[in-house]
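ok so I'm stuck.
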Amino acid sequence: MVEALNETERADALDGLPEWDYDEARDAITRQLVFADFVEAFGFMTQVALIAERMNHHPEWTNVWNRVDVLLTTHDAGGLSPRDIELAEAIDAIVGD
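replied:
not stuck anymore, here's the structure
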């Protein structure tokens, strides 16, 4: 069972994810990504989906044309966990941050 990050761990993790915003109400991190068009956005989502499936850790996300909104939290842990940080880092690597 994965455990939620404590306050210090969360702060340290967020320092390394400058493109992500912390959602205190959900104990989650969010990021909005904008691509050139729908095909590019969908291609990004496909790449993330493959990683998420291997991790057995899936994002909450929406896609409208060229925009993808991502929210990461670990429901089993009741909040932000190392799994979310790992997936956020993988997402950042895909988009080149």
